[in-house]
Design brief:
GO terms for molecular function: xylose isomerase activity. Its main location: cytoplasm. Homotetramer. It catalyses: alpha-D-xylose = alpha-D-xylulofuranose. The chain is of the alpha/beta class. About 45% of the residues lie in helices and about 10% in strands. It has 2 domains: about 350 residues, Divalent-metal-dependent TIM barrel enzymes (TIM Barrel); about 50 residues, no CATH class.
Length: about 450
């Protein structure tokens, strides 16, 4: 069944186009730094925000007009949603998608019924994948919405909840193998605490480590080991979540000996909530060789919560793409649009228009970041700023490990106050950066 017959396949038409349903910057076959845009930008469609988000908020009812929600039968509606989902990807030329288990199938009245519903819907998804060539970037288990998970899953105070979550992840990995997924994501939305007054923080973190090792062991047992990803977020819904930011997540992975199996899936809005910029989080992750994939969205500078807006801030995304290019790309990860249209953008067409805006933003950012790399703009600035470590005897001794405190003290006493500092010229750097915003 088709739901977007009024919209043609979206093509690149350049910045002079007046066609709403055309890319102005994203040209999938344009070559940038030796690869096509399509090869650089593994765009993925998120099932939850695209298909299941209805526009309701704490202050108002649903607003979205969704022609595919045209049946009172939950399973019939689930099948129609799959058809609409793949139709959107084909209209946009997207080659990847992501989903939570509860997005695609109703949970039913038991775990057994949920498993059966997932099997039926993923049979349909696999047929669409085979028909279109579209691939699964990652899937995950929603272990934060149901009341049973009010105290978390792996960090729960209840062993029964821990076991139930394990059952969801087991099924998620089975589905990942069935659909040949490249990655599997853990977002610990409620893996944290409301108050330390009643929390055994050490036990909860140890149990999370045990949970992740169980997932790795099971993946090996079914001969399908995807790239595991942790998605950091500091708060919301919990007051404090254990995967606070990239650095905290890496400390956890190192402590529990999981770095061989896990990388990070980073999100713009989550970085902001942690008090960081997105490029900071990406830089931290790649410093650990752990930059795996990203969720593409943005927040609102005036709002202090996770608004999941479509990315349109070119300077932020250009700096993010710079980090991604310096990382050598994201393969096998990608750029998942974990973004939802605004409550006032309620028409079916807005689902296409919003993704065009996001894809164009990343295309602009790719070209700008590539130009910075070709010109060695930031590399030259950084190299000059730290030149004393390479160009002086004392600097080289620090880098090669031959320096000692006593030796450095002797050097400082000999040289006295002959230290010459240079201005960072930071305002000039930021001004020139604007020239790269394509």
């Amino acid at each position: 069944m088709a739901y977007f017959n009024n919209i043609p396949t979206v093509k690149y038409e350049g910045t002079d186009t007046k066609n709403l349903f055309a890319f102005r910057h994203y040209n999938p076959e344009e070559v940038v730094l030796g690869k096509t845009m399509k090869e650089h930008l593994h765009f993925a469609l998120a099932f939850w925000h695209t298909i299941t988000m209805d526009g309701s908020d704490p202050f108002g009812y649903a607003t979205m007009q969704r022609d595919f929600d045209d049946s009172d039968d939950e399973m019939v509606r689930a099948h129609h949603r799959v058809d609409a989902f793949f139709e959107i990807m084909q209209k946009l030329g997207m080659e990847y998608f992501c989903f939570h288990d509860v997005d695609i199938a109703p949970q039913g009245n038991s775990l057994t019924e949920f498993y059966a519903n997932l099997d039926e819907i993923t049979d349909h998804i696999k047929e669409k994948m085979d028909e279109t060539g579209i691939k699964l970037l990652w899937n995950t288990a929603n272990m934060f919405s149901h009341p049973r998970y009010m105290n978390g899953v792996a960090s729960s105070n209840s062993a029964e909840v821990f076991a139930y979550g394990a059952a969801q992840v087991k099924k998620g990995l089975d589905l990942n193998k069935k659909l040949n997924g490249a990655n599997y994501v853990f977002w610990g939305g409620r893996e944290g605490y409301e108050s330390l007054l009643n929390t055994d923080l050490i036990l909860e973190n140890d149990n999370m480590g045990r949970f992740f090792h169980m997932a790795v062991d099971y993946a090996k047992s079914i001969d399908h080991l995807p790239q595991f990803l942790i998605e950091p977020k500091p708060k919301e819904p919990m007051k404090h979540q254990y995967d606070f930011d990239a650095a905290t997540a890496m400390a956890f992975l190192q402590k529990y000996d999981l770095t061989d199996y896990f990388k990070l899936n980073l999100e713009t809005n989550h970085a902001w909530l942690a008090g960081h910029t997105f490029d900071h989080e990406l830089n931290v992750a790649r410093s650990y060789n752990a930059l795996g994939s990203i969720d593409a969205n943005q927040g609102d500078y005036l709002l202090g919560w996770d608004t999941d807006e479509f990315p349109t801030l070119v300077v932020d995304i250009t700096l993010a793409m710079y980090q991604i290019l310096k990382n050598g790309g994201l393969n096998p990860g990608g750029i998942n649009f974990d973004a939802k249209v605004r409550r006032t953008s309620f028409e079916m067409d807005d689902l296409i228009l919003a993704h065009i805006a996001g894809m164009d933003t990343y295309a602009r950012a790719l070209k700008g970041a590539a130009a910075m790399i070709e010109d060695k703009f930031l590399e030259d600035i950084v190299e000059e700023r730290y030149a004393s470590y390479k160009n002086t005897e004392v600097g080289r001794s620090i880098l090669d490990g031959t320096a000692t405190l006593a030796g450095l003290a002797e050097h400082a006493l000999k040289e006295g106050d002959k230290i010459e500092l240079k201005s960072n010229h930071l305002e000039h750097i930021k001004s020139v950066l604007n020239d790269y915003l394509v």
